[in-house]
Amino acid sequence: MKTKAIIEKIAHIIFLISAVVAIFAVGAITIFMFIKGTPAFKSIGFLDLLFKSEWAPTATNPTYGIAYIILSSIVATFSAIIISIPIGLLTAVYIAEMANNKLGEIVRTAVELLAAIPSVIYGLLGIMILNPLMYKLERLIFINNPNHQFTGGSNLLSAIIVLALMILPTIVSVSVSSLNAVSDKLRSASLALGASKIQSIFSVVIPAAKSGILTGAVLGIGRALGEAMAINMVAGGVVNFPLPFNSIRTLTTQLVSEIAYSSGLHRQVLFTVGLILYLFIMFVNFCLLKVRKKEED
User: Fold this and answer.
1) SS3 string of 216-272?
2) pLDDT in tens, 83-140
């Protein structure tokens, strides 16, 4: 008994240390981002930095407006989520509720393999396959518009499609686990009351698994906001208003593109971009987790 009590105490201490390290890591990152990211607001001005759209850090008279960059990140991320959530949820329903065990395992394995593909491969496939298709579509739509600036297919639409494909495995995997966790008693009760299998799935099973599905959406948004390499390869990397056939630059690609050669105020602004990205991810997670908690209550 004494040995068991010692083991329990050691385990408790180890768990406590792990929790403290996790909290310390989050706190340290937050403090570091604020220390590095706030000086640019004093030098440039809060409103000028966030609401002006012209970005020219190497010009004779440098300008640092990141409004279009923020807007491009928001549009690309939430457009990808709007595409991915229905497809991911329906795929998860098929795997968990409709397919037989063998076929469901095959589909689930294929989805998990998508998650294992490095982001640079998605970018490469986007350059080789998606961008040429987008360029053909662009020419078809704007062939009689002499004022349109062709992008070769490197545009917002390409970024949205690549992002949607990349976050799909996360949404599917978490949703499948959530659907499988729903008690079979709920399914049986629904069927016993005369509901069809499809009615039971959409009226009983999915609402019961809503908390886990929201978690998948949170993780998907986090990956979409944090993705840089693939988007940098397919989106064109130009600071533009986020229209479907415009080349764009997001918060993450902004950091990837310029942090290596930046200095002085330019570098400070890039840290501010990182701070905005960090706060945006924290805000989205907080909002969705509040919704999830409300659903659980």
Assistant:
1) HHHHHHHHHHHCCHHHHHHCECCCCCCCCCCCECCHHHHHHHHCCCCCHHHHHHHHH
2) 999 999 999 999 888 888 888 888 888 888 888 888 888 889 899 999 999 999 888 8
- Torsions phi, psi for 56 (to 5 deg): -145, 75
pLDDT tens figures, 142-185: 888 777 788 888 899 999 999 999 888 888 988 888 888 888 88
Task: Count Cβ atoms within 10 A of the Cβ of residue 200 and give its class: 0-12 exposed, 13-18 middle, 19 or more buried.
Answer: buried
Beta strands in the chain (DSSP E): 55-56, 63-64
pTM: predicted TM-score of the whole model, two decimal places: 0.87
**3-class secondary-structure state, position 146:** coil
Return d(Cα 219, Cα 194) in angstroms, integer: 36
How far apart are the C-alpha atoms of 265 and 257, rounded to whole Å?
16
Written as one letter, the residue type at 50 is L
The dihedrals phi and psi of 55, each to the nearest 5 degrees, come to: -120, 110
